[in-house]
Amino acid sequence: MAENTIKIALVGNPNTGKTSLFNSLTGLHQQVGNYPGITVEKKQGSFHLENHQKVTVIDLPGTYSLNPSSLDESVTTEFLLHSEEQNFPKVIVVVAEAENLKRNLLLFTQVKDLGIPTILVVNMADRMKMKGIEINKEILESQLDTRVILTSTRNNTGIAELKSAIQDFEKLSKNPLSSKEISEYKNWLAETYKTGFIEIEDKQKQIAIKKEQHQETIKRYQLINAVLKETFFQDKSKATDFDSRLDKILTHKFFGYIIFILLLMLMFQAIFTWSGPFMDFIDESFSSLAETVAGLLPEGKINELISQGIIPGIGGVVIFVPQIAILFLFIAVLEETGYMSRVVFLMDKIMRKFGLNGKSVVPLISGNACAIPAVMATRNIEDWKERLITILVTPFSVCSARLPVYTILISLIVPEKTLFGFLNYQALALLGMYLLGIVLALVSAVILHKIIKLKSKSYFVIEMPAYKVPLFKNVFYTVLEKTKSFVWNAGKIILAVSVILWFLASHGGENFDNAEEIVSNRVENVGLPEHELNAKVASFQIENSYIGMMGKSIEPVIKPLGYDWKVGIAIITSFAAREVFVGTLATIYSVEDAEDEGTIRSRMEAATFADSGEKVFTLATGVSLLLFYAIAMQCAATVAIVKRETNSWKWAMIQLVGMGVMAYVFAFVGYTIFK
Fold first, then answer.
1. In whole angstroms, what is the distance from residue 448 CA to residue 435 CA?
2. For residue 337, what pLDDT band results from cuts at 50, 70 and 90?
């Protein structure tokens, strides 16, 4: 068995199937992290060759050129410039695709001129016949002085040949294609590549550098054109392409929007309908688990911590895994098919009316998964004013962390009935919350565009990838990774919050310690059955616990919104992460009535105000909470990333306070109307 691990890196333009190739090579042996000092996602995986040698694969961010135009793209250039380092990959695999080979080869020629052993993979080879494309592979290999491998991750062809080429990497040529020496080109690239996304003080130097980059591109395309003239042939009369006809429907100025809304409706219907049985099972399982653990462990603080704190708190997040997985499933399928790019193109026409660039759509749409990568996605927006406005309004998008709050509240206040026999009222309510997020983002963008006095100059360019049937393994890995990330990140926070909440709810001052004596001696409680007396003691204890004291102190502020002190505590703790809201209430209600074997939803449904006995989660309170969470910036991580991306606490604090005030006002109005 070989001792050393072979490291390789995947490089390529966006939409070349690089991720599909990464999944085909590595399967489930993947890790996701961030590059040091930057929040761009870093994917790494591994597989074994026929000789049992291990190969580590690094999937670099997609880029069109080594002269990047954004911070994300610069990661690839930065990485490739360190080719002398000991841990640098032995081979660079440049992934291209047949339909856009000319454009893809620009990046390949740049990588080849760095003197790094390089393999050119022409992916999606199964589509060549459909497009009327033929490639003379032998001549192409000779002209580019490299191994060329035609692959199809859909049909799993060419993968074995690629692995064989990696195994024989020492035979690969390191010769550059251009007449420049390797060291000369690397030094020039190191000096010039940042001008595309970082302003430099010497404007004349910047102009000169951009002119040099432009000349480099022209010379490379002259070489590429000469190579493709002998190796690439396309007869469009033989093509059986239907993309253009499909685009006429999906990007239609009227029907395009109707189709998009119908797809969203299908997604929300699925989120409620498909997930129902799984959620009920998880909810009941955690309730039974808490009861079983309480019975097995000796009575005491450890028993209470686990059965009343940790298990209910974690259960408050795990219950939403089916819905989160379905959300990511739909997003992954839309991206895999190529439809998401059409949505971006379609929505560009609307974005311009609100003073935003079409590229703002990408963060706003990706914000439906998580605001953190969505804010980072604004790096592709060249104009600072439009980028800043996009950063400030992106948190209005309904991220996956809001989904647990929305679904539990909607299930409490919206009846489980259907409109026209098939449209679920709860799904319609969830669609309404997503549309509300879009409206709030657009209206806020208009206001900010008028308030922020900065010069603005923008343009919008987007590539339309070919339509394709989603690969099951790509969708599976995406859903698995995203769901796992959600559960792990949310779970860590909620575990910590649950332990703290349990402690605060299980300890207090003198009244807490003497609760049984105080409650038993009250006249109205004399002669009560034991279970009723125990319930009153537990309620008195929770009110006089440390968390009860905190909640009571803020109750006057939140009472006008229809909330009791328990809901107030949940709002405070959910600043760490919105999904903590449900876990917090689950923990508080569990500590308050440890004998109640009900589920999280049933406990919330039964919650009442201590003074009036009225239900807490009425229609008015539910609407108030939905509006509050639709607007408020309840995410410390997003605040931190906004500070990082704007390089200033000023904008992060303006966003935090502004959205908080808006949330309070809207929640108050909503409660007043529906009361």
1. 20
2. confident
Q: Which of 59, 52, 2, 1 is nearest to 25 (CA)?
A: 59
Poorest-pLDDT segment among 31-45, 227-241, 544-558: 31-45
Order of all β-strands in the sheet with 91-97:
30-34, 41-48, 54-59, 6-12, 91-97, 118-123, 147-150
How are beta strands 30-34 and 6-12 bridged, if at all? Answer: unpaired
CA distances from 24 to 57, 387, 435, 518 (A): 11, 36, 37, 67
User: Phi and psi (nearest 5°) for 9?
Assistant: -125, 140
Q: For the segment 361-372, what is each residue's pLDDT rounded down to a tens digit?
A: 767 776 766 677
Q: How many residues does the chain have?
A: 675
Which is more confidently placed, 407 or 599?
Answer: 407
Other Cβ atoms closer than 10 A to 175: 11
Tens-digit pLDDT profile for residues 642-668 = 887 787 888 889 999 999 999 999 999
Q: What are the pLDDT digits (tens) for 97-114? A: 888 899 899 999 999 999
Q: What angle do CA 514, 518, 520 make, to 5 degrees?
A: 120
Please state, in angstroms and rounded to a whole number, the distance separating the CA atoms of residues 354 and 446: 5
Q: Which secondary structure element, helix H or strand E, spans residue 119, and what is its range?
A: strand 118-123
* CATH 3.40.50.300 domain locations along the chain: 6-238
Note whether 136 and 230 are within 8 A (CB).
Answer: yes
The DSSP annotation for 582-651 comes to: HHHHHHHHHHHTTT----HHHHHHH-B-TTT--BSS-HHHHHHHHHHHHHS---HHHHHHHHHHHT-HHH
Please tell me the number of Cα atoms within 13 Å of 96 on its side-chain side: 25
Q: Which fold has domain 6-238?
A: Rossmann fold (3.40.50)
Pairing of the two strands 54-59 and 41-48: antiparallel
Phi-psi region of 277 (alpha: psi -120 to 50; beta: other; left: phi over 0): alpha
Tokens encoding 410:
């909607």
Q: What residue type is assigned to position 95 of the chain? A: V
Q: Are 358 and 351 in contact (CB under 8 A)?
A: yes
DSSP 187: H
- Give the CA distances from residue 555 to residues 392, 582, 604, 667, in Å, rounded to whole numbers and listed in that order: 30, 19, 18, 15
Its pTM stands at 0.57
pLDDT tens digits along 403-447 = 788 888 888 888 877 777 767 788 888 888 888 988 898 899 889
From the CB of residue 61, how many other CB atoms can be counted at a distance below 10 Å? 23
H helices within 521-594, ranges in order? 530-543, 546-558, 565-573, 580-592
Selection from 567, 557, 517 nearest residue 537 by Cα: 517
